[in-house]
Amino acid sequence: MIYLTRRERFNAAHKLYRDDWSVEKNEAVFGKCANANWHGHNYEVFVTVKGEINEATGFVVDLKELSIVLKNKVVDPLDHRNINLDVPFMKGKMASTEILAIEIWKEIQKEVEALGCQLHCVKVQETENNSVEYYG
Amino acid sequence: MIYLTRRERFNAAHKLYRDDWSVEKNEAVFGKCANANWHGHNYEVFVTVKGEINEATGFVVDLKELSIVLKNKVVDPLDHRNINLDVPFMKGKMASTEILAIEIWKEIQKEVEALGCQLHCVKVQETENNSVEYYG
Amino acid sequence: MIYLTRRERFNAAHKLYRDDWSVEKNEAVFGKCANANWHGHNYEVFVTVKGEINEATGFVVDLKELSIVLKNKVVDPLDHRNINLDVPFMKGKMASTEILAIEIWKEIQKEVEALGCQLHCVKVQETENNSVEYYG
Amino acid sequence: MIYLTRRERFNAAHKLYRDDWSVEKNEAVFGKCANANWHGHNYEVFVTVKGEINEATGFVVDLKELSIVLKNKVVDPLDHRNINLDVPFMKGKMASTEILAIEIWKEIQKEVEALGCQLHCVKVQETENNSVEYYG
Amino acid sequence: MIYLTRRERFNAAHKLYRDDWSVEKNEAVFGKCANANWHGHNYEVFVTVKGEINEATGFVVDLKELSIVLKNKVVDPLDHRNINLDVPFMKGKMASTEILAIEIWKEIQKEVEALGCQLHCVKVQETENNSVEYYG
Amino acid sequence: MIYLTRRERFNAAHKLYRDDWSVEKNEAVFGKCANANWHGHNYEVFVTVKGEINEATGFVVDLKELSIVLKNKVVDPLDHRNINLDVPFMKGKMASTEILAIEIWKEIQKEVEALGCQLHCVKVQETENNSVEYYG
Questions:
Q1: Contacts of D among chains (3+ CB pairs under 8 A)
Q2: In this structure, which of A65, B21, D35, D130 has its CB flanked by the most CB atoms within 10 Å?
Q3: E strands within chain F?
Q4: In chain C, which residues have their Cβ closer than 8 Å to the Cβ of A94?
């Protein structure tokens, strides 16, 4: 069993806000992250897969194929987008880093496993100080 | 003459868009940066000052004082904000990295010089691949 | 179950030295780390917590609250201090990265768990080449 | 139980190529990594060991001794070398990051354990976007 | 006048070797960089241009167009190549970082200036410890 | 004319303190940097030299020789030392980053120029947020 990690990046806007809460409660709970006009981040996503090594290639997975899955399912829907408004798989959900990591896992799991390996971890790095890891 | 650089960070939303252009022209010129619902970045600002060394302290400038100027004039107005909508000194201007560097220079020049040194460079790093430097 | 990591930083002096050993033995075992007049590092601490996501907020823990705990219990006691001389929870202990990670764990565990999550890992990065992880 | 990680670096050439495949098949499977005249990387290796802390020193392992093992068994054989042609423990094997991590594990396991700790992980970082971890 | 920097990356093999010198002299002068079977690096190229800001766009240069020039003239010829053997503009030249920076400048100057700005600097980073800058 | 930069690192203790000032004045001016029992940093030094390229080697300077100068004159005197107490060329001087950059320049200038190039810049990075550059 061996683990391989691929990093992808996307730049997106978001806010942390509940429509069923007052402005005051949103600010009390989410602070400046609740700013009505949005803010944004350079997000990094680290996707780790695991599996047995293919004897012919020495690969656990073909990185080009993994990167295509991540481009189609993660980077294209999220890059230069508003996470709250533009991303189908985040519609109606809190745009926290935690939820984002879980929803990215759900988006890619089947296609990653179709490449012949298992999905092990989705890590989302929001800033140099904050990151989240989800293991399914 | 010696040069000192202080890094500050802010996370903000923006878009590149002209209201006096059609949607099609905006997309042709600005590509995905024109996304109507915004996107965002973890911006880094590197402010370089220059001057003579104070013999008593060994400092060209007191870093705490420089950091307070940058907090008041750069980080507080920009962090967790929308550059196009929320930032007084960017109102009515293109929210490109170039314009942002120039406007930050204008915002801080007087207060930095009041600390007894000269402003040498404002560098804005938008992503790990793109940055802009302005020398006045 | 989801994992969230917060990075904090502090700059401190220390040495590796046992008073019950001769100068020669200290130098033989600890090398230049035994320098009598101390040396120092820009330490980075990565604290990872785990738990269930709060449905209302999308958070495993409120990052502001976690950061306040880390400021009070880690950064304030260690930043711009001498680990051997100034830090109550390191008194009488070897100032190795390993011991530091364990003692930070002990300092923060109760307060982190009072935030509604579990403490998973304390990682201390001493230089770009050396780090230690403690999982309790 | 505590975990300590040491980073080492080496710069090497390699290619991904099977002599028992046609040029066309090699290019179809390995893409530009199959370039006949080689390419290369600044590799980073992160070796993680685990064990109990020595009460006298506060160390899980003496970093100087660990670094000597890694210099002798990893850096010297690989640095400024061709992984396919110059490295005895890679002869006749695919020079993928996966295989490299496994073979480094085999090379260092006994000597690391002779230092009084267990080998936990060998991580090889090939580029800022790609890395592999092997846990034995 | 404002300065904009774009980073691109390529992974390549090379060696430092003169055919008109003996093996011994090559090793004496170039050390392990003379290894007959090559070694390699993850090179980073930082290209800085300067010019006036376009009032309509807020750009000194269109980053997409600059990136296309760098892809065609720098990344495609160098990535996953052997600098000594595969790169037309390095044929018959020493594959030092210095020469590489100068030859990249010559390759891109005209096309960069055709975008309406001036070429200011080509920086080539060979390792985290070594880099070269050329200003024409 | 071409510019080459070499990075070296050292870990050291220091404090900012004047014996001819009261404790109160030291704390008022230098804040936590005046901590009596020292603090410390992982310092990075970037030394930039400039000159013409040697036609035979393609080098502006032999990096091995430059690194030996920096090891002898910068890293060995400063690494795992107390800048205020242990470093001959800093005796009696403020241990600010500014003064450190200037004194490193004085220490290395002659030996760097004996290698056949000019010293262009000494940059000292104290933390990820603060750095100083000196150009003579």
A1: A, C, E
A2: D35
A3: 2-14, 39-51, 81-82, 118-127, 130-134
A4: 57-58
Q: Do F11 and C41 touch (CB under 8 A)?
A: yes
Cβ–Cβ below 8 Å for F58 and E94: yes
- Closest residue in chain B to residue E4, using alpha carbons only: B132
Q: What is residue C39's predicted lDDT score, i.e. its pLDDT?
A: 98
Q: What is the mean pLDDT of chain F?
A: 98
At residue C75 the predicted structure's pLDDT band, cuts being 50, 70 and 90, is: very high
Q: Which of D52, D12, D85, D103 lies closest to C102, judged by CA?
A: D52
**For chain C, how many residues are written?**
136
Domain F2-12+40-134 coded CATH 3.30.479.10:
yes
Chains touching B (3+ CB pairs < 8 Å): A, E, F
Contact of A98 with C53, CB cutoff 8 Å: yes
pLDDT tens-digit profile, chain E (136 residues): 999 999 999 999 999 999 999 999 999 999 999 999 999 999 999 999 999 999 999 999 999 999 999 999 999 999 999 999 999 999 999 999 999 999 999 999 999 999 999 999 999 999 999 999 999 9
Q: Is A16 in Cβ contact with C57 (below 8 Å)?
A: yes
State whether residue D131 sits within 8 Å of chain A by CB: yes
Nearest CA to C40 out of B72, F81, B120, D41 is that of F81
> Which of E30, E80, E85 is most worth mutating to test chain D (most D CB atoms within 10 A of its CB)?
E80
Average pLDDT, chain A: 98
The b-or-e profile of C39-67 (16+ CB within 10 A means b, else e) is bbbbbbbbbbbbbebbeebbbbbbbeebb
Counted across chains B and E, CB pairs separated by less than 8 A come out at 51
Cβ separation of F98 and B53 shorter than 8 Å?
Answer: yes
Q: How many Å apart are CA A73 and CA D18, to the nearest integer?
A: 32
The stretch B101-110 carries a mean pLDDT of 98
C-alpha span between B29 and E57 (Å, rounded): 8
pLDDT at position C4 = 98
Distance from CA of D130 to the nearest CA of A (A): 5
What pLDDT was estimated at residue B132? 98
Contact status of D60 with chain C (Cβ, < 8 Å): yes
E54 touches chain B (CB under 8 A): no
pLDDT tens for B52-67 read: 999 999 999 999 999 9
Q: Which of E40, E81, E82 sits opposite D11 (nearest CB)?
A: E40
User: Where residue A67 falls among pLDDT bands split at 50, 70, 90?
Assistant: very high
Cα–Cα distance for residue pair D72/B73, rounded to 1 Å = 53
Query: Secondary structure of chain C in the HEC alphabet?
Result: CEEEEEEEEEEEEECCCCCCCCHHHHHHHHHHHHCCCCEEEEEEEEEEEEECCCCCCCCCCCHHHHHHHHHHHHHHHHCCEEHHHHCHHHCCCCCCHHHHHHHHHHHHHHHHHCCCCEEEEEEEEEECCEEEEECC
F-chain residues within 8 Å CB-CB of B65? none
Give residues 67 to 126 of E whose Cβ lies within 8 Å of B: none
CA distance A117 to chain C (A): 22
Backbone φ and ψ for E22, nearest 5 degrees, come out as: -70, 165
Whole-number pLDDT of residue B109: 98
Contact B119, B96 (CB under 8 A): no
Q: Is any Cβ of chain B less than 8 angstroms from the Cβ of F22?
A: no
